[in-house]
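Demo today. Your pick:
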Amino acid sequence: MIYPDRGAAGRTLGDRLEHLRAADPLVLGLPRGGVPVAVAVWELIGGDLDVLLVRKLGVPWQPELAMGAIGEDGVRVLNRDVMLHTGVTAEQLSAVEGLERTELERRRRVLRAEPPIPLKDRTVVIVDDGMATGATVAVGCEIARQHEPRRVVVAVPVSSVEALHRIRALADEVVCPLVPRALGGVGGAYRDFHQLSDEEVVGLLAGARREPQ
C-alpha cells in the first residue's frame, strides 16, 4: 500500500476510527507531519482538534534516527537500544536536547494560537504520519497520561513492527493499517511526503477551526 499523501492516509485512518465518534474524541496531531493526517481523521470522526508538541532527538550524525524525544511538558523518553548501538555520549545527548528544546519553544509560540484543549477525562487520539522507532509517539503518550485522559488511542498510517510493539505497551488502542516486515523509512509509504512548513501547519489548523463539525 502506498498513500498518495498525508490527507489520504488520514482518511484511511478515519475509516478505522469511526467507532470513536460517539466518544467525542480529542484528536491530537504531532507537528509537523502528523497535522494533515490528524485534520483528515478529525473531519471523519468529529470531536475536537489540537496539536501535541513533541520533538525527536536525532543521533547527531544521523538525525533521522531517533535516540529519543521530548515534549512541551518537560517529558523525555530515550531509546536506549539506539544510544547503545550508535555510541552517543551523554554530552552529545545533552547538546541535541538543548537545541530541540529551543525549537520546541519556538513551535509553541508559532503553532499555539489558543491555549491547549484539556485532555482530562477525554478519549485522546494521538496521530502522526508514521512510526519508525516510535520515540516521538512514545513521548506523546507520556504527556497525554500526565493529563489523566479517559483513554489514549494512537493512530498512524504506517509503522515498523518494533515501534508498533513498543507503542502497544503505552496506549489503550493502536490503529495502524500498514505494518511492513521491513520499514526502510516512513516516507516510503507515501507518494507525496514533502516537508511541511510552519505556514502550512498553521493554515491547516486555522481552516479546521473555522469548519463546523
User: Anything to note?
Assistant: The chain has a mean pLDDT of 92.
